[in-house]
Amino acid sequence: MKKIFLGVYHPSVLLTYLGLSISLYGIFFSKTLAFSLILLILAGLCDTFDGMVANAFQRNELEKAFGVQIDSLSDLISFGIFPVQIYLQYFAKFGIFSFLLSVVYLLTVVTRLAYFNVSAGEKREYFIGLAVTYASFFIPLYGLFSVYFSIEKILPGELLYALLAFFFVFNFRMKKPSLKIRIGLLLLAILFVIFLMKKL
Fold this sequence. Notes:
By secondary structure, this protein is mainly α. About 70% of the residues lie in helices and about 5% in strands. It has a two-stranded antiparallel sheet.
């Protein structure tokens, strides 16, 4: 029977779509740094646990392959475009250089995700390069220091984004987080959100 719509519609990708929706809301409607950072954290949590949710369902090969692709495309928006929007709106200070850094950051995100896509079939216990999801940890961490201590006066946001861009494509192995580490990141994210909510 011919399908009416293209794509794979399976509950295993719902968390991925939720994270994408949160990021899009942040890009178009967030008016403060603290709120943007909270949304970035939430998008990061969706990505951190979407694989576990997906694996809880029985999926055929097409559904698995679609899940990999839709996750990667969503990551481009959540941890590529959304962080750049945050940077340009709240941290950028150097005009054309800031724009060029944004381009470099996005290029490394695209490169990292493309590499992940072509090697996704390999069963590994580690990442090659820093996973782009970690932008949802380091940028809110920097943002916390910004809203409470104005850290950008000492360490410009350009340094953070340059380091992230470098490690996204740097050829090193990074062990994938265990369930305990994921739970620890969840608790840390809750703490971040609590402190950021005080600045809303």
